[in-house]
Write a structure and sequence with these properties.
single chain; 334 residues; alpha+beta; Fructose-1,6-Bisphosphatase, Chain A, domain 1; D-Maltodextrin-Binding Protein, domain 2; five-stranded mixed sheet; 8 helices; 15 strands; globular; binds 2,5-anhydro-1,6-di-O-phosphono-D-mannitol; binds magnesium ion
Length: 334
């Protein structure tokens, strides 16, 4: 009989030495995320049968409609991360301000987490894949004191770990601690994540481009010209490329990670800095992309070198196969 698959829990423990502050704390932290994502999976899988589809009736801090599942996923992640004394604070795309965990068990907590608990929520009601994105930093404020804004506003290059969960035809958890990228698929009957995609590498070239062309008229000229480049016919470079846009960042990113491609959400007249948030969405996916051999920029500079100025800051985002991102940047005058 073939050896059984390695579970996420086993993998984390085996690879603990890769973690700069190895003490088992990261294992516990990731295990909280693992648990939360299983609970979110359970809620999503029965979404059409329960009263959790649709809008919650409130808008989030960015004035966007919050879906009931946004709220539910947010609560699930807060509870799971608060339960263990590893994390001293959490910032979420769904909350205006960060929250501090300051019970007795958090006195020695060294980490903060930033998360988009349910990304792509406009897809929920139509049964299309959504995701969770997370980013982990070691705090810069002194241990034993309450977490501060500075803990959350660290550039992406200080991330200790980052990852995403894709609630797709199967649930997958993909993460990095800065030593490559590994993907785990949830075995539903056992309730365990099993290593299914070891050492993920993003192809250097690809032929998929993912962008919301509904915004085309508002894009800067360089972006319009790059889109035309993607659509031009040239057999040597395999063009025209294939357009694929789910409108669910984790799903679009995951497909391009596996197959090779570029995702971009540029600035436009109505969105001077694009739509995506540097801290909750771009930094963690940039960390994964780079660790898999890809690139992530705002069109001009490396995403992970941008110093965040506010929790909900938006940035233009170009992420994917190295040669494709470089080509796109050449159209933007970078
Ligand atoms: P959300 O965090 O409110 O769900 O918004 C982020 C999502 C991404 O998943 C997706 O790529 C993008 O918004 C789609 O935006 P648009 O509909 O403008 O193309
Ligand atoms: Mg989002």
């Amino acid at each position: 009989m073939q050896d059984r698959a390695i579970t996420l829990g086993e993998f984390i423990i085996e690879n603990q030495r890769d973690f700069p502050y190895a003490s088992g704390e990261l294992s516990q932290l990731l295990s909280s995320i693992k648990l939360a994502s299983k609970i979110v999976t359970r809620e999503i899988r029965k979404a059409g049968l329960t009263d959790i589809l649709g809008a919650s009736g409130v808008e989030n801090v960015q004035g966007e409609t919050q879906m009931k599942l946004d709220d539910i996923a947010n609560d699930i992640f807060i509870k799971a991360l608060e339960a263990r004394g590893i994390v001293c604070g959490l910032a979420s795309e769904e909350m205006e301000d960060y929250i501090i965990f300051d019970k007795e068990k958090h006195v020695d907590s060294k980490y903060v987490v930033l998360t988009d608990p349910l990304d792509g929520s406009s897809n929920i009601d139509v049964n299309v894949s959504v995701g969770t994105i997370f980013s982990i930093f070691r705090r810069v404020s002194p241990v034993g004191s309450p977490a501060t804004l500075e803990d959350f506003l660290q550039p992406g290059n200080k991330q200790i770990a980052a990852g995403y969960v894709l609630y797709g035809s199967s649930t997958m958890l993909v993460y990095t601690t800065g030593h490559g990228v590994n993907g785990f698929t949830l075995e539903p009957s056992l309730g365990t994540f099993q290593l299914s995609h070891p050492n993920m590498i993003m192809p250097v070239d690809g032929k998929i481009y993912s962008v919301n062309t509904g915004n085309y008229l508002k894009f800067p000229d360089g972006v319009k010209n790059y889109i035309t480049y993607c659509q031009d016919v040239d057999s040597e470079t395999n063009r025209p490329y294939t357009g694929r846009y789910i409108g669910s960042l984790v799903s679009d990113f995951h497909r391009n990670l596996l197959k090779g491609g570029i995702y971009f959400y540029p600035e436009g007249t109505n969105a001077p800095s694009g739509k995506l948030r540097l801290t909750y969405e771009c930094n963690p996916l940039a960390f994964i992309a780079e660790q898999a051999g890809g690139l992530a920029t705002d069109g001009h500079q490396r995403i992970m070198d941008i110093q965040p100025e506010s929790l909900h800051q938006r940035v233009p985002f170009f992420v994917g196969s190295t040669n494709m991102v470089k080509k796109a940047m050449s159209f933007l005058g970078s």
